[in-house]
Amino acid sequence: MWQHQLESPLEFEWGPDRAGGPDAASALPPLPGGCRTYGELLHGSASSIEWLSLVKDFAKAHLVSKVECLPRDLARGLYYSTIACALVRHGQSISRLERSELVTGFGWMIDQPWLDPATRELMVQGLGRLGEQRGA
User: Fold this and answer.
1) 32 versus 117: which is more confidently predicted?
2) How many helices and strands (H and E) does the chain possess?
């Protein structure tokens, strides 16, 4: 399921039909150059702090929702991977979580057997940004 999510187009979730209509969709920041999927946002050469924040908030909404539209582990994966990507690629925090909570979350991600190697390495690098060391 994780690989499917990485290959899913961002427009599926954020297009006019999903983002509250054409006016809401036009208010979204433009996608970074060449970035069309969740995987490209996280692992491509172009990423955007605005889009990482949008996806993080999207994932968080699914984590706290009583209705499970997106499996919790998948939502948690998107949540922590966008935070790690912002730290690693932009040197910015897009979360209000405490450092210890991020360390725990990134560690949880690394331990998931379904996680792809590129995201696992992103999580290891995220831990490094937090001053923690852990092998992939």
Assistant:
1) 117
2) 8, 0
Given a contact cutoff of 8 angstroms between Cβ atoms, the answer to whether 88 and 123 are in contact is no
Q: SS3 for 135?
A: coil
pTM of the model: 0.86
Strand, coil or helix: what is 121? Answer: helix
Burial of 8 from C-beta contacts in 10 A (0-12 / 13-18 / 19+):
middle
As a whole number of angstroms, the distance between CA 61 and CA 78 comes to: 11
As given in the structure block, the two tokens for residue 10 are 């961002």
Would you say 80 and 104 are in contact if contact means Cβ atoms under 8 Å apart? no
pLDDT of 94 over the 70 cut = yes
Average pLDDT over residues 96-107: 96
Q: Does residue 21 surpass a pLDDT of 60? A: no
At 48, which amino acid appears?
A: S
- List the structure tokens of 48: 């955007």
What is the Cα–Cα distance from 58 to 42, expressed in whole angstroms? Answer: 15
For the cut 50, the answer to whether the pLDDT of residue 18 exceeds it is: no
